[in-house]
Structure formats: structure tokens, C-alpha cells
Write a structure and sequence with these properties.
heterodimer, A: alpha+beta, 2 domains, 6 strands, B: alpha/beta, Rossmann fold, 47% helix, 18% strand, globular
Chain lengths: 293, 126
């Protein structure tokens, strides 16, 4: 899940455009990691050294790793270690952006180092998708410190991103949230959760994006907005909210009840307490998650 | 395994869930699949259909799955009702089983889970 937030960081830093990021998220399925990016990430080589090896490869018929060792930039055992590691998702994203000519090795090096430093992340944190670190990034990204139920919002979104990856796809980028009281919804599925906590949750989008989201979840092409399309989006929300209530029950002994989900079209939704509007940019467009806890 | 003698009822307020379940269960060659939209309709139609097994959601309008199971078990103590819910807390599990549910599955439910249940039920159906 760090890949999605790293993508968002690149977008907000102006290093990539929406289109370039969406393309890279799409392309990364077929990306194979190269030693140069792995070595930069592990701080075993600088971007400058990687470029020097690339240039030397033009005149010497040697593989990148052998040449980097030959030039004294890296040890042979470090090459073996790097090659044996499973590539993490954010590195695949970085490699794809480098492959697509969007980022240079130098820009990737600066961006990944700045990102890790900003969030105090170690390689181990990122490689293992450490939950506590993910929660920290989510809370910092959305400025939940201003919300009364900051921990619950963070837990809700931490699980939401996992469920999006599991049921919809990992080609998304979280965008800046806003606080809303009256929300003008196009196509909107909502569900309330009641008990020790009261939550209003919803998923909203314009026609095309809403249908794409429904299609991804259903695993079939849904072409028009009808009860089936709403039910598909609603079932994703229901599954997610169900898993959220199970987590709260198991972890904190908080017992909650889900209410049946329903939908609205082209209506303004009013929230008694303000709600967070969390836009997520997928390769097919933006879907908004509205949450009030 | 043949399911050709088996009748199944699906109770869920989501047309999406009903269609997905029905498509899969029908593809196994069962005798009949009946659909109902909420707990009230399940109670109203249960004795007409008398299915060999029913898959039932919990969170539904008009009447919840737990309320429906309680009433159906009173009408037919041998009813086999599989609760299929997104809310799988210990409390819900206990509530469902004490109401007389045959089995409890947390959504999302895989085809393998459905197949296993039908396999067990089919052995009892001549």
C-alpha cells in the first residue's frame, strides 16, 4: 500500500502528472525490476553511479551487476542479495516511471529518499507493509488530527485501501481530502453503522467512473446505471464495512451493527456532523468515499 | 457429485449477491434455485419452496436474517439455513447459531465454500 501513497507524493510534488501516474500504475504489472533502481533504493549505489554503469555498458558487453562490481560501485554479494529480494510494489512503480521516461534515476533517488525521510520510514517498514507505519502515513496524509475520532478514521481507511487492492485493483492514488456538510452526489451508495459508534459511509462517482468501479468489483462489464450497478457498488461497501466492524469487535470489543445499504442519484446529501470526502484516483477516474464518524 | 435433486433458496436484499450466487449454484445443475429479497419474504415463501438448503444474509430491510431464521426454524425444525453475512463478529455468529442456523459464512463467500455445503446437503437428499 506504500506504492499508492508514494504515487500520491510524486503527484503532489509535481514530479509526475495524473496521466503519467495512471499509465505507470497500469504498466507496472508487466514491469521487471532492474538492479539500478534496487541498488539506489537500498542506498548501495547512487543515481550517478547507476548512470555511469549505463554509459559504460555502451562500450563494454557486460551485465549491469557484473559491470557495477567491476567498476567498484558495489560488492558482488550485495548484487546477489538485491537480486534475490522480492520487488516491493512502490519500487515497481518507481521502476515503471523510470522505464517510461517520466523520472530519471536521479529524480527517483531524491524522491524516494525524501519520502522515506518525511515519514521516518525504513526499508523494513515499507517492505513489510507495517500496519503502524501505514496508519501513521494515512493519518498524516489526511490530517485526521483535527478529527474527533482520528484513530477510527485511520483504521477505516487503512482497511479500505487494503480492500480496494483486494477487490478493485491496486492502480489507484489517494488524493487530498476535504470536509463537507452538504455533498452534491451524482451516483451514490450509502450505508450507516450504528452502536457504540455511529458512522455514515458512502461511495460516489460520476456515471462512467461509477460503472467502472461496479464492473471491477463484479468482474463483469456493467454498462448502465441500474439496480444491479448500485448493488455491486453497495456490496463492496457492505463487505468493507462488515470487515471493519469485525476488526473493531476483535481488536477493541466495540460491537457495531450495519444497516442495509441504499442508493441515491443526483441528490444533495446533508451530514449533521461534517464528513470527510476522500477522493481516490483510479486509472479509470475518480471515486469519492464519504465518511462521517 | 450430482446436485440434480437439490433445491436451494437465496435470501439477500442485494440483487448483485443474488445474481452471483444464483449463477454459480445454477451452473452446478441443481433442480431449482429460488430467490427472495428480505427476511420477511423468506418467512412468507419458505414453506411453499421448502428448499433443501437456504443461503441467508443477516442485514436486510423489513426483517433481518436472524429474525427470519428464528421464525423458519419454528415452522420447520429441520431447515438448513446457511447465514452468509458481511458481519462476522463472534456475537453475530453466536446469535445466528442459537437462532438455529446450520452454518455461518462471512462474506465474501467463495464458490468452493458454497460447493462444500451443497455437497454435504446433497448427501442427505435422495
Amino acid at each position: 500500500m506504500f506504492a499508492q501513497f508514494f504515487g500520491s507524493y510524486l503527484l503532489n510534488s509535481g514530479l509526475v502528472t495524473n496521466k503519467e501516474l495512471a499509465q505507470a500504475l497500469e504498466d507496472k504489472k508487466n514491469t521487471r525490476m532492474k538492479l539500478g533502481v534496487l541498488a539506489i533504493n537500498a542506498k548501495l549505489m547512487t543515481a550517478e553511479q547507476v548512470e555511469a554503469v549505463h554509459q559504460a555498458q555502451a562500450t563494454m558487453d557486460m551485465r549491469f551487476g557484473d559491470l557495477a562490481v567491476h567498476l567498484g560501485f558495489i560488492k558482488a554479494e550485495d548484487v546477489d542479495t538485491l537480486l534475490s529480494q522480492q520487488p516491493t510494489d512502490y519500487l515497481l512503480l518507481g521502476q515503471t516511471l523510470v522505464n517510461n521516461g517520466v523520472l530519471t534515476n536521479q529524480q527517483f533517488e531524491t524522491a524516494i529518499n525524501d519520502y522515506k525521510q518525511y515519514h521516518s520510514l525504513s526499508d523494513d517498514d515499507i517492505s513489510n507493509d507495517q500496519n503502524a507505519k501505514l496508519s501513521q502515513i494515512i493519518s498524516e496524509f489526511y490530517h485526521f488530527e483535527t478529527a474527533e475520532n482520528a484513530k477510527t478514521y485511520t483504521a477505516y481507511l487503512n482497511l479500505l485501501f487494503k480492500n480496494l487492492i483486494r477487490f478493485i485493483g491496486d492502480d489507484f492514488t489517494p488524493l487530498e481530502a476535504s470536509i463537507v456538510r452538504d455533498y452534491d452526489a451524482n451516483y451514490f451508495v450509502y450505508q450507516s453503522i450504528s452502536g457504540n459508534l455511529n458512522c455514515e459511509t458512502g461511495i460516489e462517482g460520476e456515471e462512467y467512473q461509477y460503472l467502472k468501479f461496479a464492473s471491477r468489483f463484479a468482474g463483469e462489464d456493467i454498462r448502465e446505471i441500474d439496480d444491479f450497478a448500485h448493488a455491486a457498488v453497495g456490496e463492496f461497501l457492505n463487505l468493507h464495512n462488515g470487515l471493519f466492524t469485525v476488526n473493531l469487535s476483535n481488536d477493541f470489543g466495540v460491537e457495531l451493527n450495519l444497516n442495509p445499504q441504499d442508493f441515491k442519484e443526483n441528490e444533495t446529501v446533508a451530514y449533521a456532523n461534517s464528513a470527510f470526502c476522500i477522493p481516490i484516483s483510479f486509472s479509470f477516474g475518480i471515486i469519492n468515499f464519504i465518511i462521517s464518524i | 457429485m450430482s446436485f440434480s435433486n437439490l433445491t436451494v433458496m437465496i435470501c439477500d436484499d442485494s440483487i448483485f449477491v443474488r445474481k452471483k450466487l444464483k449463477d454459480y449454484i445454477s451452473s452446478l445443475g441443481v433442480k431449482a434455485v429460488y430467490e427472495v429479497c428480505d427476511g420477511q419474504e423468506a418467512v412468507d415463501k419458505y414453506m411453499d419452496y421448502k428448499p433443501d438448503v437456504a443461503f441467508m444474509d443477516i442485514v436486510m430491510p423489513r426483517k433481518t436474517g436472524i429474525e427470519a431464521v428464528t421464525e423458519i426454524i419454528q415452522m420447520d425444525p429441520t431447515a438448513k439455513i446457511v447465514m452468509a453475512s458481511s458481519v462476522g463478529t463472534q456475537n453475530h455468529l453466536k446469535e445466528a447459531l442459537s437462532a438455529g442456523a446450520y452454518e455461518f459464512l462471512q462474506k465474501p463467500i467463495s464458490n468452493e465454500q458454497i460447493y462444500k455445503i451443497l455437497e454435504i446437503v446433497a448427501k442427505d437428499v435422495k
